[in-house]
Structures are given as C-alpha cells and as structure tokens.
Amino acid sequence: QYIMDVDSSDDDRPLVKIKKKKKKSPAKPDSAKSSSASKKKRKRDSAVPDEAPSSSSKKAKKPATKELKKLEKTERLQYAMQAFLWWDAKEPPEGCQWVTMEHAGVSFPEDYVPHGVKMLYDGNPVDLTPAQEEAATFFAAMDPDGMHLGNPKTAKIFIKNFFTDFKAVLGRGHVIKDFKKCDFEPIRKHLNEQKIIRKAITDEERKANKEDRNQAMYKYGFAIVDGHLEKVGNYNMEPPGAFRGRGEHPKMGKLKSRVIPEQVSLNLSECAAIPRCSMPGHAWGDVRHDPTGQWLATWKENINNQSKYMQLAAQSSFKGKSDRSKYTKAARLCERIVAIRKSYKKDLKSRDKETRQLATAVWVIDRLALRVGGEKDTDEEADTVGCCSLRVEHLHFDPNEEGGDSKEIELEFLGKDSMLYKQTIDFGAAIYNDDNGMGSRVYDNLKGFCSKKKANNEVFDAINPTMLNSHLKQFMDGLSAKVFRTYNASKTLQDELKKTEQTAGWQRLTPAEKVVEYNNANREVAILCNHQRSVSKAQETQLETIGNKLQTLKKQRKTLKGILKCLNAGKPEKIPMKKNEKKLVEEVTAAIAKAKKMKEKATTNEEKIKATEADEKAKQRRREVTAMKFEKAHLWEKTPSKDQVIKRISNWGNKITKMEMDLKHKDDNKEVSLGTSKINYMDPRITVAWCKRCEVPIEKVFSKTLRDKFNWAMAVEPEWEFSEKIAN
User: Fold this and answer.
1) Backbone angles phi, psi at 229, to 5 degrees
2) Please, is 409 exposed, middle or buried when counting C-beta atoms within 10 Å of its C-beta (0-12, 13-18, 19+)?
3) Beta bridge partners of 532
4) Which end of the chain has fewer CB atoms at under 10 Å, N or C?
5) Residue 443 designated active-site
6) Is the pLDDT of residue 44 over 70?
7) Is the pLDDT at 636 greater than 90, yes or no?
8) Model confidence over 402-437: pLDDT tens digits?
9) What is the DSSP secondary structure assignment for residue 6, as one 8-state letter?
10) Under DSSP, is residue 409 helix (H, G, I), strand (E, B) or coil?
C-alpha cells in the first residue's frame, strides 16, 4: 500500500525520504473566498502561462544532500596501497622477495638545450659546443657564497676537480688553459634571469606543470608486486651535474655524467612485459629476473663507480618487512646484553692485546654508539672514521688540562656523511662506572693503545673491522654495531619516556607539553647516536624572527596591563588606539592582483621579469603590512571594556607561553637531527604505545610520511614494551 501511494516523480529518491501524499478534503468555500482564490489562480496562470503546476511544488523543499568528496587519482592510489596489509599476507617462497613484479622502468631527464650565452676567458667571449656549454653551466649554477665555493677549504677541492673534468670535456688544444682566467658570470647572470622568468608563471601554467609531473608519477611511480600496488621511490634518473658531496669530500666538483638506458639493468618477473624505453634510439642494457633482490633497476655512476638502485618507497612492504626485522633483531639483544657486557668487561683486563682491543672496541660501540668503521682510500672517499679506524690524532686526553686523576677524552673526527663528532667523554663519571661499567678501565686501555704512537697511527692496530664483526657474531647471530645502535636508541627512548611519565604532575600536562618531553627524550637518543645537522641560514633567520615576535608579545602584554590601569583610573582618553587597517590590506590585495594580471599578459622575457618584480614588491609590502598588523594586534579601534582587556591579557599570556616553548624547542634542536633516529633507530612501536598511553595524537610526533612508513606499528597496545618478548 505504501509503494502504491508513492508519486511516480519520486522513483529516483531514497525510500527513507519518500512520503505519502496528503489527501485533501473537498471543502466548499464561501463565495468571497472562492472569488479571492480564483483571482490568485488567474494571477499564477498569467505569470506562468505554459507551465502546469507540478506535484513537487506543493511539497516541502527537499533538504540539501551533502555530496561525497571526489578523490583525486593520487588519493585513490594512496588508499589502494593502504588497503594491502602486508603483515597479514602470505609470505613469498623462502629466499625470495617477490613472485611477480612489474614496473615501467626509469624516467630519464630531458636532453640539454643550449642557451647560447658565452663565458669569458681572459676577458674575451669563448665559443663552446653544447656539451662544453653544459659543463660550464654546471659551475655557473653554484652559489659563489655557498657551502662549497664560499668555504676556502672546500672551494679549493671543488675548483680543482671541476677544472680537471672541464678540460677533459674541452679537449686538447682548446684556448681555455687557466681557471683563474675563466669568468662564468655571464652564464650565472643568465641563470638568475631565468629563475626570475620562471617565477612569472601563471596559475594555469603551474597547474599544467603539476599535471605533467603527476602523469610521469602515474607512469613510473608505481609497481605491481605479487598482485598489489606499491609506490616506487626514486624513479627519476639523477641528472648530470657537478658532484657536491658532503663535508670535505675529495671528489666534490667532479662532473657527473648523463646516464643512458644502455647502462641500466631492469629487474622484473619473466611474465611481465618489458617496459618501453622512453629515449628514442636507445634500449635497456639488461633485463634480469631475480626474485631474491628488492631492486627494480640498477646502474653505475661515474664519480665513485658505485652501483645505484631504483627501489620501492619507504612505505612499501619490502621496507616495512626490513624495518620490522631490524627492530626484532635489536629486541633479541635485550635478553643477551647482560651476558655480552659481562664477557667484554672480563676481556678488558686481558693480557692479550688483541683480546683487550676487541673488548674495548665493543665497549665503545655499546656505550658511545660508534660505528665499526673501515679502511678507506682518502683520495677517493671522504676521510670518515669509525671505531676501528680511529687514529691517535682523534683522541685528546685531558682536554681541559685539569691534571691529576682526570679521565676525560675529547673525541673529534668526521663520522658518517662527514658529520663532525666532537664530544668530551668523562670515562671516570658515574654513568660509565656504576654497576661495574668499567669506564675507568676503558680510559686506561685507550691511553695504553695510544702510548708511543704517532698522530696518524691507528688506536686499534691489532684488530680490523672483519675481526670485530666476527667477534660480535659469537655473541648473537647477526649482531653488528648497527644492532647495538638500534637497541641502545630504542632502550634509551623507552627509559627516558618512562622517567617523564613517573614525574609528579605528568597527568596535568597538556598534549603540547607532553610532546616537548617526548622531543627531549628523542634528543637524548640523537646525541647518543651523534645525529647532528648544520644550522642553515633559514634556521637562524627563523629563530631570530620568533625571538623578535616573543619580545613584541611581551611588550604588548605590558601595554595591555597599562590599558587596564587607565580604565580602572577612569582615564580612557590615555588608552592608545589602532587605526583602521582595511585600506592598507585593500592596497596590498590590489597590488598582488595587478601583478597576477601582468603575469598572465606577459609574453616576452622583459615583461615576465617586470611582472615578477611587481609580484615580489607586492608580496614584500604584504609582509610589511602583516608585521604592522602584528605590532598593533593587541589594540582596539574603539575603547574596550575591562572584561575585554582582561580576556586579551590572558590570551597574550597563553601566546607567550606557547611561543617560549616553541623557541626553546627549536633552539635546543637546531644542531640535532631528531628525524634520523625516528626513521632509522628508534622502534616506532615505542612511540605509538606512548601516544596511546598518554593520549597524544600520533600526528604530533610522527609526520604523515612516517605514519605511512610505519603503518605496521600502529596497532600496538598502549602498554606495549620494547623487550625480548617481541623477538620470540
């Protein structure tokens, strides 16, 4: 009966919204009402002569239904990848990483397009071939005041290596002989102009460029592994250029050659279609079918003659399995660490030099988190140092010249990625001697190993990395210095977080304050593992800006308290007021809109440069207006009430507290890389469990990238602990 009474116009409506028609009773109106009704009917008919009144017009207006969000293709692909839970999936055959794998190969950079701008040699323009011009452009693109050319020490290495390779590109008999006579400024000026021109890009062009990048990502950025979608990490081939390296790398400045398809080997399953090579006239060097390898493509670069690999992204199942296995192995150390420490403490007193050096090296790796280190050709590689490669010159005994029974050693050397390790270790401190820590004994051993040796002699001259790694494997299968680092990083984080949770008033802390405590614990791990970073100019500027804003907020709060005094004293005329800022904002908005129109109309390079200059000028004015508004943000346009002032004083107090916390966090961590230990060394399940236990949103400590990378760790219980139980 319900369906029979439904109007046919409701066929496409949801059943829950369909209502029965109301039956009208045939009432007989009096003549006056009938006459009035007929007039209204004639009026309606004359207004809409050709339309019959619809049944829907008599009904109540339909409530607006909220449309579902339309997902972009990138978002749909992301959800498709997240749907695969690799930890619940069937494992591939033993020794294999996959059964089937298909991908689109590598994306190569576009060929070099000559710009025709000539460099000068001895004041005269020089004709160069496209290959020679490209090499000259690589050098001109370097910032003269940057970390490579701005530092006299690195500039010497960079220029020497560059000019050696540049002369090889120029060939014999070329006019260019002396670097000091070379002037790359015309090319540098051209490149700077091109940067300005590129800034004049319109919104439509920017959107088109983004679409081009997306199309390349859709083609090369995904692989199908065992029937499910995986994200590819580095699918873009490295472009040619001047090698920069880190620190004082001995090869900085050398020219990186362009890689062609013939140098690339692909890895995919036999049943997969071989991807078409994107460079016309070229073909892949080799196609392999190796299910034991995780790599998708490989080639050799010309700087260090090392193999490079295209692999799946950090959030892939391959990386996830590797990470979980790494942390599980580190957790196995929990039940063996006591026996290992007991063994090396005993050997620290051995009369045999080799045994004593092995025990001392293991102590250093365990307690100071140093890497094993190895022999390097310093002419080919950076002179980075680990435990086995420490030289006498890297250890400074009693650096503060305190004399007496001082057991301090300053360790100073270049660690991984040429990052400076410079710490003064007090081997006599309680932290290294409590519970029979043997810190004093290690100090005596190191002093003995350095005795009667030259500065460039090795400290551990009786052992090498192979011997040390073999020695470690006697304690536990697969034990290495990295396992020690992972164990110590995870254990330190867990212990530091537990300490903060046991402090009085922990439960009263806000989530933001708890995050500060988490970062403090993270910093302890970063210091332990020597995860440092150089302070950039941008960081220094940011800290200075926050500091200035903080001082402004404090002055404003003081002014607000003065305003409250004026109101209490009945002297509102002494209260400072702010002017209407609407006109300034409108002027800036109009200037930015004008610059945007200039960009859209610009066709020549000169017009684009003018448009960019106008845009930058307008944006600078906007920054000035924003700063001006911030300076007067505490004031009113009209005389405020006492309640308004009291409320604003309270708000300003909260702002100051938050900014002080932010400034301290940034200043404390400006030279420490918190991210490295999060990504590589601290078991993510410790952080996830802590967030759940302390009611802190996980996004406050883990970025989206890390949440995607460690998706396998998100389901742990709040009471989860890093211990030997997870290894069983």
Assistant:
1) -85, 135
2) buried
3) 672
4) N
5) no
6) no
7) yes
8) 888 889 999 998 887 777 788 899 999 998 999 888
9) S
10) strand
